[in-house]
Structure of Chaperone protein HtpG:
Amino acid sequence: MTESVERHSFGAEVGRLLDLVVHALYSEREIFLRELVANAADAVDRRRFEALTNPDLSLPDAPRVRVVPDKAARTLTISDNGIGMDKAELAQHLGTIARSGTLAFTRAMAESQASDKPSLIGQFGVGFYSAFMVAERVEVTSRRAGQQEAWAWASEGRGEYTLAPATREEAGTDIVLHMKADAEEFLEPIRLQTIIRKWADHITLPIMVVKDGEEQAANEGTALWRKPKSEITEEAYADFHRHLGHVFDTPWATLHWRAEGTLEFTALLFIPGMKPFTPVEEARESRLRLHVRRMFITDEAALLPPWLRFVTGVVDTEDLPLNVSREMLQATPVLARIRRAVTARVLSELKTRAKDAEAYTPFWENFGATLKEGVWEDAEHRTELAGLLRFRSSAQEGWTSLANYVARMKDGQQEIYFLVGDDAAALAKSPQLEGFRARGLEVLLLSDPIDAFWPERLASFEGKALRSITQGQVDLSEHKVEGEPAPDLAALLPLLREALKEDVAAVEETAQLVDSVAVLAAQAGAPDLQMQRMMRRAGRAFGPDRAVLRLNPRHPLVRRLAAGAEAGEDVTEMAGMLLDLARVQDGDAPRDPAGFARRVAAALADVRSASAESPEP
């Protein structure tokens, strides 16, 4: 037998090749088991396919993959009853990476990344060679289906491999890994079962782990997404959704389709019916699972943009090699096309469901804030997303869309007005709305943190500009309201500006108030007030805190101050009071809370004294 052993040299570059595979290609050591199980499952599939035209190659009654750990011998064996390999195929399939050399390997990698073809890693035997991450020696015994001879391939991965005649009772392949001392964790049956459930749970072929002499199933063996929709019940979909996301809800939407043509993949996606226990804001990456021929590859392929990260599910394709690494995925053109197709399909589903306002509301209340992020960061989909947005309004109950707002706009109105704050209920009572309500002008109430940012990027909708009512002076001159003529503030305004020159950028009168005495607004061209507040809270202030103080010229207090200014009275104290009142209305603290409290108390005491001194009617 010894004389019949053939020794073959890998070539001078094998050390560099194996170093690339073992240390650079894969980020998780346990991947080796996924690769070997995938190869075994593929071998069974190939035998099943060839048996369609050659019945002599038919599979045994119970095809399966067996994973057998042996702690005493420190070996791990992966066996299948698939198509097997003859002597030439062993040399070809398990020696290609070495015979191709580092230069050819890296050149092919670069070409595959730069073209529209899948990565060519699989053509170089890289998946098999991941075994050397955990094994100091690998032995392969294989018998080709339809042949009587078996052959053994063996290598320590250092420069050569051997080929020798062997015996195997049936067709198929045994891979024996002689484990490294630091890889003994992979001889624990429960560890092996965990890895298989993670990476190969939905391979339809049974994968059995041998424990204490008994075979135990390690995978579920049902790729639900590969079944026809007509064979799947709603309960089965819901169970899979719960299993996949470790949640307890029923999905709000289930998307199951197969793309065919130049790009082929199957997708089964779920939009949850409730917010996850872990907020989607904690991690801004999509966690859709990427499978290749039912084999789990990664959930870090970013198959959907961050603003759709609440979508869960599986995308399974035939157009990628099984052993493509997560690092290589980012440069694969095929994956980029899958991303575009999956994103378009989810958006299409949302647009269809958004037509039913009542049915759309639960989704919006759960994930609307996340969807708005796309308006801010995704120029390609910004216009589509704008149509999916929903808002509270100053003019009606419930949610409304931008399209509905535009349909209700008054004649001559050219802007979509909105107000941003921390709470929609509080915004509905804001004095900023008074002048708009008096003129029958609707204002959208935005209360998510992202609302301080995205309107700037969208800028307009259906030709109507978006306008924050706290940013600059809104011209309401086309929309008149009845009332007493406003007094002349020519004497008062300069005095207030001088008294508050360290605290505000300007003091001006406004038509946006009806009942309140004063409000604050951002300067023209400056960030919206809510954005300024958010930046201050984050410790990133937008320059000096100098807003514009706007006065209601028809308010009794302003009328009295205007008369006093004309009479030469000192308005310094009241200037500070007006500013603090405006700050409190916006939810901010007065500049000097203790001083503000004293002034309010003194003013109340004066009112009570005046009331007590008034003669009885």
